[in-house]
Amino acid sequence: MKLTRRHTLMMAFGSAVAALLPVRAFAALEDDIAAFTGGANVGSEGITLIAPEIAENGNTVPIEVIAPGATAIIVFASGNPVPAVATFNFGPLAASQSAVTRIRLAGTQDVVAIARMPDGTFVQTSQEVKVTIGGCGG
Amino acid sequence: MAEDVKPRVRVPGKATAGEAITIKTLISHAMESGQRKNGDGNLIPRSIINRFTCAFNGATVIDVTLEPAISTNPYFEFQAIVPETGTFEFTWYDDDGDVYTDTQNITVS
Fold first, then answer.
1. Is some CB atom of chain A closer than 8 A to the CB atom of B61?
2. Which residue of B has its CA nearest to A98?
3. CA-CA distance, B10 to B19, in Å (whole number)?
4. Rounded Cα gap, residues A115 and A37, in angstroms
5. Running DSSP on this structure, what letter comes out for residue A36?
6. CATH code matching the domain that covers A5-131, chosen among 2.60.270.50, 1.10.10.10, 2.60.40.2470, 3.40.640.10
7. A61 pairs with which residues across the strands?
């Protein structure tokens, strides 16, 4: 195949798009986190995220978030097309600020949990989950 | 649209005052994420349950905002305090406007 000017341009364009994509996904997560925390500094103590190290089926990955005293916990899947997963708001009758649910993961990625404390501070934790079969259809 | 949506809730029948009890809820729902394509290559529109709440005698226990990344048949497990005999009310809000509810009574001795 002869390498024409058109081919070279197309290849350059393709690689530029490929390079941009992960950056854009990352930016979406950053924006979502900023929307929740309001840009405040985020600590790391006092929140636990329990997720499997390896999930065979990305369609149902069991996770548990625990943040004693928190008013709300938000969960993100950094590698999903839409990073937001769920927001748990705890009322006065919640015995513990913890919840168990099952989530979808598109592939191997970090799951991030951020808790809002009553004094307005935020704490964050994350864990990598290796996914054998992704769970976002396709 | 959503057919055969059936909430299932497990709450202990009785407890002592102030005790922390574990509640498990499950509701049958496809939770169509809006990311999948059908055989013709067209996107299947999103159709999920977007909010779940649990209250005891009117006081909130938990209020969850769900995104498409929640699995089919959303499952939640959490803990509540029961100060007195009363009723747990569970509510699920569907994208299409439907609201599914369930109630469970608990006796405090």
1. yes
2. B78
3. 16
4. 9
5. H
6. 2.60.40.2470
7. A103
Quote the DSSP letter at residue A32. Answer: H
Q: What does the pLDDT look like over A121-132, one tens digit per residue?
A: 999 999 999 998
Q: Which amino acid is at B61?
A: V
Report which of A91, A108, A90 is spatially closest to residue A99, judged by C-alpha positions: A90
Classify strands A109-116 and B59-66 as parallel, antiparallel or unpaired: unpaired
Rounded Cα–Cα distance for residues B85 and B82 (Å): 7
Extents of the domains making up chain A? 5-131
Q: Give per-residue pLDDT as tens, B52-74.
A: 999 999 999 999 999 999 999 99
This prediction has a pTM of 0.83
Answer yes or no: do A99 and B71 touch at CB < 8 A. no
Name chain A contacts of B93, Cβ cutoff 8 Å: none
Quickly list H helices, B2-94. none
| Facing residue for A86 by CB, picked from B21, B55, B65 | B65
ipTM: 0.90
As given in the structure block, the two tokens for residue B29 are 């729902």
CB interface of B with A, residues 65-104, below 8 Å = 65-72, 74-83
